[in-house]
Amino acid sequence: MTTDTPAPDDHGHGTRTGVIIVVVAVLLGLILLTKGYGSGSSEVSPATQESSKAAIVVSTTTTLVANPPASVKVKVVNATNVQGLATKARDRLQGAGYTQVTVGDSPKPQERTTVYYVAGSQGDGQAVAKALGLNLDQVLQIPEPPPTELVGATVLVMAGLDLS
User: Fold this and answer.
1) Distance (Å, rounded) from C-alpha 58 to C-alpha 63?
2) Is 94 strand, coil or helix?
3) Please, what is the Cα angle at 114 between 163 and 126, to 5 degrees?
């Protein structure tokens, strides 16, 4: 007579372990997807998709993809009475690979530098702030109306006394 009894050391544990591993892997994958794309913006510009040199900017709350520095148009405005501050900031940005940087002056002085970005360019704004040694709390979406004419720039740096 043949009986279908399992071998002494086979009690179905291998199958359960495999299922547990698969469930944990799926959960980890879902967590990584939601954390990695939790910025609220799901749009990726064509330049970012085509470039293998895209920088990744990491903050404590969100990971954002920034365009390569050479493709980001930045305007730096001197918002102080310190002569040459916008040019000094432009030189720092050019040293970090930003090649499309224009400078100007602001009639409204401010002590603390603010980096503004247009909608969809938060990663670029954060990368510019990092290149200037600024904190991410100094990066904001540009208000309407903007503090100065952008002239095609997607990131505006209002250089304050903390950059002098």
Assistant:
1) 5
2) helix
3) 100
CB 69 within 8 A of CB 130: no
Residue 36's H or E segment, with its range, is helix 13-36
* Separation CA 121–CA 102 (nearest Å): 17
Q: pTM for this structure?
A: 0.62
For 12-64, write each residue's pLDDT tens digit: 556 777 777 777 776 666 666 656 544 444 444 444 444 444 455 544 545 47
CATH topology classification for 64-163: Alpha-Beta Plaits (3.30.70)
Task: Yes or no: say if 102 and 154 are a contact pair by the CB < 8 Å rule.
Answer: no
- What are the b/e assignments for 105-124, b being 16+ CB within 10 Å? ebeeeeeebbbbbbeebbbb
